[in-house]
Amino acid sequence: MVRLALTPAALILAFASASACAPAILSPVDPQHELAVEALGGEDPAVPVGPLHRPGQPCMLCHDLGQDATTFNLAGTVFRDNVSKAPLTDADIELVDSAGIRFTAHTNCVGNFVVGLGDFEPIWPFWVTIRQGANDSAMGSPVHRERSCAACHFNPAGPRTAGQVYLTSDDFVVPMIPVRACRPDEGNI
User: Fold this and answer.
1) Which residues of 126-135 are buried (b: 16+ CB within 10 A; e: fewer)?
2) Secondary element (H or E) of residue 37
């Protein structure tokens, strides 16, 4: 039987070599992900990073497991109508999964909503209904794969997308949908 004896210098060299490789092994860089994040552009300097930033962008690019930002389970932005960037404020986003379990998220003053890890773990697929006051709109099909609305819903509407997520396209109803300014307490999660 042959025994290998490692000297302290050999142990240090082996550990240093393994440590140098660890970042490449433990957290590989996904070039497609990096390009998608870069395509979002920089932060708006007038809006602090937090629940009010980047409305309408694919939240899960940065808020997924393994990313630096707070991890969400589901997230998105809802607009008042199908063409403007006016946010749908104080709306309920009702989620119902395949087991019939219900969860309600709420939009903030820029239309963003977040479902945190552990708040709701849907059994896929799940269905979505947007509700504000007497107005509601159910998504025409269940959600099968994406956890970020803007991954599928973006402008302009066309063969690949229904366009942004919105409550109504009824020109009579849109002006009656309440809008409010952001409160100072809404800037932090």
Assistant:
1) bbbebebeeb
2) helix 31-39
User: Are the beta carbons of 167 and 78 closer than 8 angstroms?
Assistant: yes
Q: Give the phi and the psi of residue 175 in degrees, each rounded to 5.
A: -65, -20
Query: Which residues share a beta bridge with 130?
Result: 93, 137
pLDDT tens track for 39-59: 889 888 888 889 999 999 999
Smallest Cα–Cα separation from 93: which of 155, 149, 154, 169? 149
Strands 135-138, 92-97: pairing is unpaired
Q: What is the DSSP letter of 178?
A: -
* Structure-token match 């708040």, residue found: 119
Cα 187 to Cα 35, 47, 89, 110, distances in angstroms: 28, 9, 14, 11
**Cα 169 to the center of its chain, rounded Å:** 24
Q: Domains of the chain: which residue ranges?
A: 49-184
In this structure, whether the domain defined by 49-184 belongs to CATH 2.40.50 is answered with no
Among residues 85, 51, 65, the alpha carbon closest in space to that of 154 is found at 85
Cα gap 52→188, rounded to integer Å:
8
Please state, rounded to an integer, the average pLDDT across all residues of the chain.
Answer: 86
